[in-house]
Structure formats: C-alpha cells, structure tokens
Specification:
Elements lengths: L1 H14 L5 E9 L2 E12 L3 E7 L5 E7 H5 L3 E5 L4 E3 L3
Length: about 90
C-alpha cells in the first residue's frame, strides 16, 4: 500500500510541473548517466514525457514511468525552484 501512495504523490508532484523547465538525470547503467535540460510536456496514467530541443532540426521526446523516480533511476529537478521531485 505504501508504494501506491508514493507513486500517487510522485504523479501529483509531476503534474504540477507540466510546462516547466526541468533538469533530468537518468541512470543508463554501467556507471553511465544522462543529464539534460528539457520541458515537462505531459503526463499519462503510467508515464510522463519530457521534450528536449536539440541542435538538429527535430525535437526529441523521452518518456519515463513514475516508478523510475521511486527506484531512483531517474531524478527530476525543477529549474528555477531548485526543487527535486522524489520519493520521500
């Protein structure tokens, strides 16, 4: 039951930040991390989408699940507020 409460709390925190600039830090395994700044574009029942503007002529979108934040595979920091979205 505690896990579902934590996932609901994470989802609510992320929904409040739609349209804001966020710093994403994702663990890609084997001591590799992906750090990029993007905009939290949308949320869905199981995932959230972050949009990155790249130097090329296209826009990259990446989706992660809320459980990625719960397991600390992904870390989101809201830019300007210096507030991390994480499981407490």
């Amino acid at each position: 039951m505690r896990r579902n409460d934590s996932l609901d709390r994470i989802k609510r925190d992320i929904e409040k930040c739609i349209g804001k600039k966020v710093m994403l830090k994702a663990n890609k395994g084997r001591k590799k991390t992906f750090v990029k700044e993007g905009i939290l574009e949308s949320t869905y029942p199981s995932i959230f989408v972050i949009k990155f503007d790249t130097d090329q002529a296209f826009t990259r979108r990446v989706s992660y699940s809320y459980s990625d934040i719960l397991t600390e595979t992904v870390e989101l920091t809201v830019c300007g507020e210096n507030r991390k979205i994480k499981c407490s």
